[in-house]
Amino acid sequence: MSETLFKTIALAIGDINGIGPEVTLKALTQMPWPAAFRVAIVGPEAAVQFWQNYLRINLRLPRIANLDEWPDGAAVVILDRDCELPEVQAGKLSAAAGNVAGNALRQAIELAAAGKVHAIVTAPASKHALHLAGFHYPGQTEFLAEGLGVSDFAMMLVAENFRVALVTTHLPLRRVAGAISPDLIVRKLRVLQRDLTTRFRIYQPRIAATGLNPHAGEGGLLGDEEKTIIAPALQQARDEGIMAEGPFSADALFGRCKENRFDAYLAMYHDQGLIPLKMFGFGRAVNYTAGLPVIRTSPDHGTAFDIAGKNIAAPASMVEALRLAAALLASN
């Protein structure tokens, strides 16, 4: 097959002390890759080998220094640019592990910016470890957006046809009300509508937006952000041709999610949107970033230091992250 026909996924290794390498290796044993797809695990070969030996997972994973060296017949390789490997310490917070995770993500970004990979899948990384290593981002999503030169993006969790995007993400709750604005909401709706249309192939997607306050403010008795911020933003979005409805009381809206005919939901803050999403699809949901020039997915969970090294981490969400990345690549 011609080199140009391959679609390559960069899989950033994440925190080597967490469950990222475990769910990555387990997921790769479950993925029957079509001939047109291939995966490059970005990170130190020694870390992958450590976890292969520790977990007794037998995968053929050739090491390459750049994507031009891809060996014939290999669907998955380790892309290792002579990374120095710190000692793997399962379950331990470490600046050294954060450095590995940050450098792996930075390399994946460079590959995407150069057009050498078509999607990025990120294994879980500890925000604390990344900060200790000098990567000061709220999360991998913001790291990716800055590295790819994107200012408008949206974090969206996907479980089957249930899709929930967020206006604010990793922000203390006391700061949420001051962070939302009509402009921010409209920008989130634009990237959400664009990706639902172009990547998910949904014609004229319907998007439901939540309110911020209980009962969507109950006419202003419980807060006025619905009237002064959210409703004007939704009207502006509709004026632009975006089918945005609301603001709805979040509990009632998500309580009827199986009956609703919305293609996606826009929640005002992290737990408001992710609690119902994870109740619906915990363990098999996928984190997708709308607005990036390349497809990006990740599992819906973190590093789970408490179970790292116990060989009990379930790979279902990583499997779904890989499957969604491949499916979106196949349809675009």
State the helix count. Answer: 11
How do the helices and strands follow one another from N- to C-terminus? Answer: EHEHEEHEHHEEHHEHEHEHEEH
Low-confidence stretches: none
How much helix, percentage-wise, in residues?
25-40%
How would you describe this structure to a colleague?
The protein is an alpha/beta fold. The chain folds into 2 domains: 1-150 and 292-332, Isopropylmalate Dehydrogenase, CATH 3.40.718; 153-289, Isopropylmalate Dehydrogenase (3-Layer(aba) Sandwich). It is 37% helix and 17% strand. It has 11 helices and 12 strands. The chain has helices at 20-30, 45-55, 95-113, 127-132, 140-147, 176-179, 182-198, 225-239, 250-255, 270-281, 316-330, and strands at 7-12, 37-42, 63-64, 76-79, 119-122, 154-159, 162-166, 206-210, 243-248, 264-267, 286-290, 295-299. The protein has a 12-stranded mixed beta sheet with strand order 3-4-2-1-5-12-11-6-7-10-8-9, sandwiched between helices. A hairpin with a 4-residue loop joins strand 11 and strand 12 (295-299). Helix 1 crosses helix 11 (316-330) and helix 7 (182-198) packs across helix 8. The chain is globular, with a radius of gyration of 20 Å.
